[in-house]
């Protein structure tokens, strides 16, 4: 099965997940060099509310959809 390049997970993300025990949302935000405030603004929520989403070990599917849209990645890339 051919995989679209846009759906690949960069090695840096995998490293952050494994070596630094980051959540996928946190790892992607760091990889994309965005601040919590920037992503929160895209989501139209407070930075504190976003921090809670980012720390969640098992975010809801609807949360993954909203955050992936804000980060401009696919839900599949975020739901690893």
Automatic annotation (TrEMBL):
Pfam families: HTH_3 (PF01381). GO terms for molecular function: DNA binding. SUPFAM superfamilies: lambda repressor-like DNA-binding domains. Transmembrane segments: none annotated. PROSITE patterns: HTH_CROC1. Residues 25-78 form the HTH cro/C1-type domain. This is Transcriptional regulator with XRE-family HTH domain. It comes from Microbulbifer rhizosphaerae.
């Amino acid at each position: 099965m051919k995989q679209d390049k846009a759906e690949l997970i960069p090695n840096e993300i995998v490293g952050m997940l494994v070596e630094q025990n980051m959540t996928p949302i946190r790892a992607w935000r760091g990889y994309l060099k965005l601040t919590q405030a920037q992503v929160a603004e895209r989501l139209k929520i407070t930075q504190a509310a976003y921090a809670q989403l980012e720390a969640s070990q098992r975010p809801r599917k609807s949360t993954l959809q909203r955050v992936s849209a804000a980060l401009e990645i696919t839900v599949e890339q975020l739901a690893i």
